[in-house]
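The passage that follows is intended for readers who have already worked through the single-chain material. We present the inputs for a multi-component assembly, then the predicted structure in tokenized form, and finally a short commentary. You are encouraged to pause after the input and sketch how you expect the pieces to fit together before reading on.
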Amino acid sequence: MTHTRRLQLKTLPLILVSIILGPLGNVFLGKAMKGVGPVTSGRFLDLVPIASQVLASGYIWLGVGCLLGFFIVHMLLLTWADYSYVQPATSLSYLSISILSYLLLGEAISPLRWLGVTVICLGVFLVGRTSPSSTGAPNRA
Amino acid sequence: MREVVLFFLIVVAGTAGELCVSRAMKSIGEVHDFRPKSILSFVLQSLRLPWMWLGIALMSLGFFSLLAILSFQEVSFVVPVSALSYAAGAFGAKAFLGERINRNRWIGIAVVCIGVTIVWWSRK
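Having made your guess, compare it with the prediction:
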């Protein structure tokens, strides 16, 4: 097996994991916060009981766990794969967050929102296709 | 209005926090040694920098604002709109870190902003 093939075999599954894990973390945070109810006050004293309710929710810890997992996978990926390869691929996470919100939270996503999310994915993909360093490193884009 | 304030905090405080952390990291220098002992010493070194603490405080503010908005808005609305941090990041990196943003990156950022505007129109 060639070196490039081996790299692809370990990179692609981890990119898939990061595309799912990050959005899944946000979905769990959303589920936890919906359980607490709308936070309408910005006063510190009102926020204390809300904070204790949030910390007692299992979903918040699931969410934080997923986001930590995402962070570790992302860092791992960047130790061997180029940032300019990883970043465009992870732009798909904006599509996966919509799919997961629909499947797990039952959010109705209008065609307009799908269009907006697709345009955001395209924009993030384009940002990722540019050189990761613009202050001296050779341009690889 | 409440949403605009919270999105402002998510995007601006979150991005400003990342820029502060980035500034702290750049002042320490590039990491070449990934042994646990070296990473620990790197982390301890970074915690001595005021920029790092300012960054952590601002990123925490951004995260708590995200939690607050998720309590009454849909995840499929909040997360795509917070992609505006790509634009805030580019402006901030140019002004604060002196990074050069090339034309292609500006085009990508403009496309993200168009996408965010479309998602904003889908607000319920």
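Commentary: The radius of gyration of chain A is 18 Å. Chain A has one domain: 3-128. How closely did your sketch match?
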